Amino acid sequence: MSTGFFGDTPKIKYEGPESTNPLAFRHYDKDEVVLGKRMEDHLRFAVAYWHTFVWPGGDPFGGQTFQRPWFEDSMKAAKLKADVAFEFFQLLGSPFYCFHDADVRPEGRNFAENTKNLNEIVDHFEKRQAETGVKLLWGTANLFSNRRYMGGAATNPDPDVFAFAAATVKTCIDATQRLGGQNYVLWGGREGYETLLNTDIGRELDQLGRFVNLVVEYKHKIGFKGAILIEPKPQEPTKHQYDYDVATVYGFLKRYGLENEVKLNIEQGHAILAGHSFEHELALANALGILGSIDMNRNDYQSGWDTDQFPNNVPEMALAYYQVLAGGGFTTGGTNFDSKLRRQSIDPEDLLIGHIGGMDCCARGLKAAAKMIEDKALSKPLDDRYAGWNGAEAKKMLAGGFKLEDIAARVERDDVNPEPKSGRQEYLENVVNRYV
């Protein structure tokens, strides 16, 4: 069905690198085979419901700039928004989408009305999914926008807020399972603190640990087969978030016995806010065995906040997808565009153009990453650099076969006097540039 919002825009097609059509893919050919798998199956693109259909175009200094016919808090508007969304997914050819509960349903007077509204929209989504073949990559709960969450959700000093948040997550997991969602994300929008003067960190961490365990317990009780994911974010809105980065979240998971139950949904913009590169966060998640899915966007590097722009830096994407492929590729996860238009990009066509450019950028990055893996362009130099650890004595040293005094005696006996070897960073940077 056509809502008329996008006029008579035809379905976006692949036209090749020479195309100048802004409403066509130049690099994303979903059926192109890369490393033995279709590009669509590698990238598993998803549209973020909140930024694409909910965000009004505001910023810290100005309000709404977008005019959308569904911008009112009613069930009628929510269903129109859903119809436009599924029309958009089909035009774009996106196989997946993601949502928060508050994105898709009107806000009710209480928990019961919120649940009723959500379930009515889920009924609507089920029909649209059946008609279009579009699937849910993941669902989540908005536990940060409403004023009840101003002091956090799971980490709130009021146990009634904790309970309200837990009940809300239950309904959202139920909705995600009904819709065949492949993951459920816990995004701790206000799980942190603004000042230590009114914060008991130990207590709040214990609350958060119990909250996540409750979610995992419920997942197993209802037989939800998807992954539970946490999305790290270092700051904004709170001064310090408990889910600061990959390393911080892994430490949290280990402390509360969750390291084998929960993986991560890692966002490019959040990695930058944490003072890391995106590939660093992905590589660390791979090393720790907790990489689940990614949110794809970019920040403006002149701004110190999360600008959520569409990705357009192919070298960054190549290094990111190199880590994804090196980790074996996505299973239940995928590439969600947690990206929004600039507030002056007010036309419906701009929504398509932003996603088209992002998908093309990711496709170029994926192909460059795949070629680097095929050629062992980075893995061979890396293996060579650590080759000494393949020796018998080196292996024994790591395996606990030597005590500290044994190692010291060997260094003295054999007159071990190592000479530094070049890390060849510039060479490797030039290698990457040859592929992008």
TrEMBL record:
<keyword id="KW-0859">Xylose metabolism</keyword>
<dbReference type="GO" id="GO:0042732">
    <property type="term" value="P:D-xylose metabolic process"/>
</dbReference>
<keyword id="KW-0963">Cytoplasm</keyword>
<feature type="binding site">
    <location>
        <position position="306"/>
    </location>
    <ligand>
        <name>Mg(2+) 2</name>
    </ligand>
</feature>
<dbReference type="GO" id="GO:0005737">
    <property type="term" value="C:cytoplasm"/>
</dbReference>
<feature type="active site">
    <location>
        <position position="100"/>
    </location>
</feature>
<dbReference type="InterPro" id="IPR036237">
    <property type="entry name" value="Xyl_isomerase-like_sf"/>
</dbReference>
<keyword id="KW-0119">Carbohydrate metabolism</keyword>
<comment type="subunit">
    <text>Homotetramer.</text>
</comment>
<comment type="similarity">
    <text>Belongs to the xylose isomerase family.</text>
</comment>
<keyword id="KW-0413">Isomerase</keyword>
<feature type="binding site">
    <location>
        <position position="270"/>
    </location>
    <ligand>
        <name>Mg(2+) 2</name>
    </ligand>
</feature>
<feature type="binding site">
    <location>
        <position position="231"/>
    </location>
    <ligand>
        <name>Mg(2+) 1</name>
    </ligand>
</feature>
<feature type="binding site">
    <location>
        <position position="295"/>
    </location>
    <ligand>
        <name>Mg(2+) 1</name>
    </ligand>
</feature>
<dbReference type="GO" id="GO:0000287">
    <property type="term" value="F:magnesium ion binding"/>
</dbReference>
<feature type="binding site">
    <location>
        <position position="308"/>
    </location>
    <ligand>
        <name>Mg(2+) 2</name>
    </ligand>
</feature>
<feature type="binding site">
    <location>
        <position position="338"/>
    </location>
    <ligand>
        <name>Mg(2+) 1</name>
    </ligand>
</feature>
<feature type="binding site">
    <location>
        <position position="267"/>
    </location>
    <ligand>
        <name>Mg(2+) 2</name>
    </ligand>
</feature>
<keyword id="KW-0479">Metal-binding</keyword>
<dbReference type="InterPro" id="IPR013452">
    <property type="entry name" value="Xylose_isom_bac"/>
</dbReference>
<feature type="active site">
    <location>
        <position position="103"/>
    </location>
</feature>
<dbReference type="GO" id="GO:0009045">
    <property type="term" value="F:xylose isomerase activity"/>
</dbReference>
<keyword id="KW-0460">Magnesium</keyword>
<protein>
    <recommendedName>
        <fullName>Xylose isomerase</fullName>
        <ecNumber>5.3.1.5</ecNumber>
    </recommendedName>
</protein>
<feature type="binding site">
    <location>
        <position position="267"/>
    </location>
    <ligand>
        <name>Mg(2+) 1</name>
    </ligand>
</feature>
<dbReference type="InterPro" id="IPR001998">
    <property type="entry name" value="Xylose_isomerase"/>
</dbReference>
